[in-house]
Design a protein that fits this description.
The structure is a homodimer. The first copy, chain A, is built from four helices and six strands. In chain A, a hairpin with a 5-residue loop joins strand 4 and strand 5. Chain A has a six-stranded mixed β-sheet with strand order 2-1-6-5-4-3, covered by helices on one side. Chain A starts with a helix and ends in a 7-residue tail after the last strand. The interface between A and B is large, with 43 and 44 residues.
Chain lengths: 157, 157
C-alpha cells in the first residue's frame, strides 16, 4: 500500500507540474463563459448602462470601428453610452475558450446593429466580434478587450 | 530529513494545485510574446506567405473588416495572400498579457495599411488590432484569433 501511495503522489506531481495538463479530466468552464457573455449582451441590448458596465474590467479596452482604441472605465462608459444612444445592438457568441489557469478566456460570435442614417432610414449592419475576458479575484469574468467589425462591403449598409 | 522531504512534497502539491499562482514570483513572459508578434509582423510585412502562416494555429480565425469571419488554415492562407497582394501592412503591438497557465495570451497595438484606390492613388489607413495567441505543445505561440479595424471615419481614407 505504501508504495502505491508514493507512486500516486509522484504521478500527481508529474501531472500537476507538466504542461499541458490533460484536457477533459477537469473540463474548462467554456459554457459558463458563454453564459456570462449572454448576460452581458442582455444588459447591453436592454441599454442598461450600469448593468453593462458591471461586465467591464477597470482596465477594459474597446476596439470600435472608425475610432481610436478606447481604454479605461470612464472612456468605456462614454463609448457604450454613445453606442446605446445611437444603435440597437444585439449579438450572439458561438465560440469560447479558456486558459487552463482559468484567468483568461475569449468569446467570439456575430452581431446585428440597427441604426438610423442621416435621413432617418433604418439601416442594418451585420458583423463579428472577439471578446477577451479576465477572471477577477472574486471569480467573476469581466471584459478586458472587445473588438468588432462589419461583414458588409465598405459601401454598405 | 525525511519529514522535510514530505513537507516539501506536500507544499509543492499545494502550490501546483491551488489557484491563483502567486504573481510576480515567476514573471509571465509578456516580452517574449511581444517578440513573437514582432517576428510575425516582420514575415507579414515582407510578404513571405509561408513564414507568416507558420505563426498561425491550424484552427486560426481572422476577423477582417468588411468580410465574414475567416477560419481554418486554408481560408487564413488565402486571406493573408490576398491581403499581401493588395496592401502594404505593418503593425506594432504595444500591449500584451498571458494567462498564468501560459497557454493563452494576447497582444494589441496599431497598424498602418497602405493600398491603392481604384484610380491608382496611394491611400493610408490607420487602425488597431487585438490578437489572441495559443501556446502549442512544442512551446511556440501561434495566432488563434486576429481582429482589426480602422481608426478613421467611415468616409476615409
Amino acid at each position: 500500500m505504501g508504495s502505491h501511495v508514493r507512486l500516486g503522489t509522484a504521478l500527481l506531481i508529474t501531472l500537476l507540474a507538466s504542461a499541458p495538463v490533460v484536457e477533459g479530466a477537469d473540463p474548462l468552464p467554456t459554457a459558463s463563459l458563454l453564459a456570462v457573455d449572454a448576460d452581458w449582451e442582455q444588459a447591453y441590448a436592454a441599454k442598461n448602462l450600469n448593468n453593462a458596465l458591471a461586465f467591464c474590467d477597470d482596465e477594459a479596452s474597446m476596439l470600435f470601428p472608425n475610432a481610436p482604441i478606447i481604454s479605461g472605465k470612464a472612456a468605456v462608459s462614454k463609448a457604450i453610452a454613445d453606442d446605446m444612444a445611437s444603435n440597437d445592438l444585439t449579438w450572439h457568441a458561438n465560440r469560447a475558450g479558456i486558459a487552463r489557469s482559468r484567468d483568461l478566456g475569449y468569446t467570439s460570435g456575430v452581431y446585428v446593429m440597427k441604426f438610423k442614417d442621416a435621413s432617418g432610414k433604418v439601416k442594418v449592419d451585420n458583423g463579428k466580434f472577439l471578446t477577451l475576458w479576465k477572471r477577477q479575484a472574486d471569480g467573476t469574468w469581466k471584459m478586458l478587450y472587445e473588438a468588432a467589425n462589419s461583414d458588409l462591403p465598405v459601401s454598405s449598409p
